[in-house]
Amino acid sequence: MKKEFAVPPVNFPSGGNPSATSNINQRRVPTAPFQPNRPATSSIPFMSFDIGSASASYGGSITTSTSSLRGPASFDDEEPLLDELGIHPDQIWRKTKSILNPFRVNPTVHKDSDLSGPIFLYLSFCLFQLLAGKLQFGVILGWIVISSIFLYVVFNMLAGRNGNLDLHTCTSVVGYCMLPVVILAALSLFLPQGGLVRLVVTAVFVLWATRAAANLMVSLADGEEEHRGLIAYACFLIYTLFSLLVIF
Q1: In terms of pTM, does the model score above 0.85?
Q2: 100, 103, 179, 205: least buried by Cβ within 10 Å?
Q3: CA torsion sign, 31 to 33 to 34 to 38?
């Protein structure tokens, strides 16, 4: 069964010439961009849909505002990089120099504790041990952390409620008093293995570090003179432990 559909006739303008339609489109007059009606009571600023006019109207103001905010490039007011990182080389040198004299340790320079000097001494100790053929970076770091916590616990147990030293200060004191052990590690590269000379030199540097650490701990904690012997014994155990890494 077939269905028939009525097809309307196709009429071409201008005598069936399709090119006439394109000529008509080419001769059309360009219209203005779409401009919606702006309400009289509207407080929202009107924005045109013309991209060219929008960039022309807003580009100049943006450039002017950003250029006005920029000042002259100057680094005179900038702080040094080491000061921003909390590293003060002059302060580290004063603290290190105070440890060099085991009989007169200046506790005033150690009241402002820091960890930059102890980290430097720790890396120096690890370097000298590495030159001796001993890779002990992790061991030394772990022993420093445990020694700081041990000295902090012992001191606060002795001082009771009067203890005023925190863990940061104890870590700083233990780290700076590692200087005699670092010097021992450097000298051990030139000393003969074993023998009495090596043991005597090690004992001298351990006593040096013990005396410096005990004097600093007692001086930084006011009124702990009666516990000097026990604090010195704890410091002696700590630096004896580090010296065993050097002589063996």
Answers
A1: no
A2: 103
A3: negative
